[in-house]
Amino acid sequence: MKKIINDPSTVVAEALRGVELAHGDLLTVIHDPAVIVRADAPVRGKVALISGGGSGHEPMHGGFVGAGMLDAACPGAVFTSPTPDQVQAAVERTDGGAGALLIVKNYTGDVMNFEMAADLAGGGGIEVEAVVIDDDVAVKDSLYTAGRRGVGTTVLAEKICGAAAEEGRPLKEVSDLCRKVNGWGRSMGMALTSCTVPAAGKPTFELGDDEMEIGIGIHGEPGRERKKVAPAAEIVEMLATPIVDDIPFQQGDEVLAFVNSMGGTPLIELYIVYNDLHRFLEGRGIKITRNLIGPYITSLEMQGCSITLLKLDDELTRLWDAPVKTPGMRWGV
Amino acid sequence: MKKIINDPSTVVAEALRGVELAHGDLLTVIHDPAVIVRADAPVRGKVALISGGGSGHEPMHGGFVGAGMLDAACPGAVFTSPTPDQVQAAVERTDGGAGALLIVKNYTGDVMNFEMAADLAGGGGIEVEAVVIDDDVAVKDSLYTAGRRGVGTTVLAEKICGAAAEEGRPLKEVSDLCRKVNGWGRSMGMALTSCTVPAAGKPTFELGDDEMEIGIGIHGEPGRERKKVAPAAEIVEMLATPIVDDIPFQQGDEVLAFVNSMGGTPLIELYIVYNDLHRFLEGRGIKITRNLIGPYITSLEMQGCSITLLKLDDELTRLWDAPVKTPGMRWGV
Predict the structure, then answer these.
(1) Residues of B in contact with A19 (CB under 8 A)
(2) Chain A nearest C-alpha distance from B227 (Å)
(3) Does A291 sit within 8 Å of B295, measured CB to CB?
(4) Which of A11, A264, A276, A303 could covalently link to A192 via disulfide, CB atoms 3.0 to 4.6 Å apart?
């Protein structure tokens, strides 16, 4: 295993110290239980947006804490759900009196632990809603997951709902909006290489020198099929066809196209993918009006990419464009 | 070779089309000769900032075109200098009547071709200055380079000089500022893996499963030494010691610390490096007051990182903080 780390057992703790030292103007890191909190939390009268999940997907979620996005993120161990007490601490620490929305990726452990925390917080008198993101069209039921997995749409939901919460909209509206984003977003990913979980010390799976895995999960869960590496345009077709066929998108729809690196794939390849995706969607009569290109929801150093499409209307477009100031996404301020 | 591409010979052209389709609000792509130009160029009365170099280092330089940073970038083939006619086209296309500053990384081909373009443009009546960045303390003279190589400080110079040009400062001042940034910035990098140039189809160099290269260049040029992979804290010491000893930094100095991914190293590892770097500098009495963490000057999918330190004063800090709106760096607008 080749990584720039000191000790597999302290990877998350040390990275959190780095985040704290680098971004103290935007966020505060609580170390026990581990929670990354917006520096000015709690914000009075604002719905608190809270997410989290296993570490190893950076900048998600900790890098999305700040004005216009998340109030708190709960980082678990690498590829391991955060514990209920982390989530409970996040809810209590960010409570501005308007309740909390938990944005949860659909993995069995995450769903269970976030629900447990919601119950605990509810018992403590804080109104809490949880919305589960399940946008991965690759497989139904998977390692760690009943139903579809939650992937790229999570990033978009955190941005869009963050903007709505910032406007002072009530919990019910922000939660409904989150369900709308989940309903309108679909994703699929692929990998050229495995990643290596530090504590495991060896690759999660093996891929031949000429193979790729289509429909991979963000923890290296198996996808739909393993096949010979194909040209980018064919990869785009393999990923985008099931996405477009699923929602279904209509001719004339406008979308946000999110081309994501799994961590080890560089930007130059993502732009080739974006070029092919643009052409693919043009052929279907679908117009990209917003985009996001880069490593936002990663799987450690895995080489590969994912595509997320989110259908847009005026409301979602306006909220996407709203100012955001976090380490991982920043504009308008 | 595993990459998400269509054809090794069209990697740059296709990526440029992707950039054009994705960021048409910020920039315009001219395809022959290839130049990425700020969308509102030429800006009347403003010094034009122009850079460029081989492709494969994205987001540098094309991702830094936009308000507050570059007016144009000239992308060569992968790891290959742009041609004089690309640079000349960039100078002519962005000429707002206040002259042009060419920011050139110190590689023999780049220096030669940018100088030739400066002569051509000068002959055409446009005042042009060129500043060569040579901040890499790893080696003196290298493959492709006489003297020190130009690396991470280039990104910082483009941001800081971009802000100065935006304020309407004259060519002489912006050029002097660029020389000051180059004088105050130092870098060094390391690699865990090689990268693969698409046209070559095989890794640029071989590293054993337990080896790293200290002092690597951004094209995979050999560094200072090859040794067993060490813990992050030791890697930081190996990179930061020659940097700090070189300028030299004084106790009490304030710096911008830039921790960069070579392309294949994920953010979680960069934060571990940042944490170790913070401690290392604290031990030397040097204070980090600004930081930049992420993949900004990359070597395709190479795994590894580099550290750049830039000594700051009030002027540099203010210009660093100034608004910037480019695909790769954006804040304040």
Answers:
(1) 271
(2) 13
(3) no
(4) A303
> Would you list the domain boundaries of chain A?
11-184, 185-313
Superfamily of domain B185-313 in the CATH hierarchy: Dihydroxyacetone kinase; domain 2 (3.30.1180.20)
Active site residues of A: 57, 219
Provide the residue-wise pLDDT of chain B in tens; the chain has 333 residues. 999 999 999 999 999 999 999 999 999 999 999 999 999 999 999 999 999 999 999 999 999 999 999 999 999 999 999 999 999 999 999 999 999 999 999 999 999 999 999 998 888 899 999 999 999 999 888 778 889 999 999 999 999 999 999 999 999 999 999 999 999 999 999 999 999 999 999 999 999 999 999 999 999 998 999 999 999 999 999 999 999 999 888 999 999 999 999 999 999 999 999 999 999 999 999 999 999 999 999 999 999 999 999 999 999 999 999 999 999 999 987
Residue A125, SS3 per DSSP: coil
Q: Min CA distance, B200 vs chain A (Å)?
A: 16
Strand order in the sheet with B254-261: B225-228, B211-214, B185-191, B304-311, B254-261, B287-294
Contact flag A272-B59 (C-beta cutoff 8 Å): no
Residues A19, A8: Cα–Cα separation, whole Å: 18
Residue A233: closest C-alpha in chain B: B6
| Buried-exposed string B213-236: b where 16+ CB fall within 10 A, e elsewhere | bbbbbbbbbebbebeebbebbebb
Q: H or E stretch including B112? A: helix B108-123
Of A231, A267, A305, the CB nearest to B58: A267
Determine the topology of domain B11-184 in CATH.
Answer: Rossmann fold (3.40.50)
Contact: B268, A232; criterion CB under 8 Å: no
Q: Which of A14, A22, A263 sits opposite B266 (nearest CB)?
A: A263
